[in-house]
Design goal:
0% strand
Amino acid sequence: MTDLLGLAAIVPASAGACCTVGAWRPGRAVDVVAAVVMVAAMVDGAFGPRVLPGVLWFVVLALLAVVVAAVHRVQSASGASGASGASGASGRPGSAPSVRVASAHGRFGRLHAALGLLVMGALGVGMAHDPGMTGMTGVGVHGHGGAVAVTWQVVLGGLTTGYLLLTAHMVRDGIRRRTRALPVVETLAMGIAVAVMAAAMV
């Protein structure tokens, strides 16, 4: 059942990645790369033998999450300075600068993307069948191994819950504001993929 749910999660994740590619624009190349790598990690975990161990995929996705957050920060700072300069040049001091958000999903878009990479990487570790992974995710370990497993599950549960709540908020906000359909579908599809992956671990 776990393997079937893992396979099922690839469908909405792939749909979300296709939406990311379809909504591509300058400044979103890192989002496209992250989406493709995340789907590759899921496919690698679902079809054996693995190309990379689950822990290594988690490291790759975590690094991509950092890159996504860093790019968002740089682009937001550039947009703010550019808007401020344009406002000063127009001779209208006091007018509020309009900061261009690089993400197609609004101000929470890159947070959602970065958190999604972390959650998917962590869920991939939890579902891994790699030798030696039972010390972290398996049941029946004792002592320090049991404490690590419990801590990992608590952190993973918190990340997953936060991600799903953020997904629901973004989808609701997108529908209410009648934004473009593609970013909303992308957000919803990734939320469904994470929910299915989390259900596979229950």
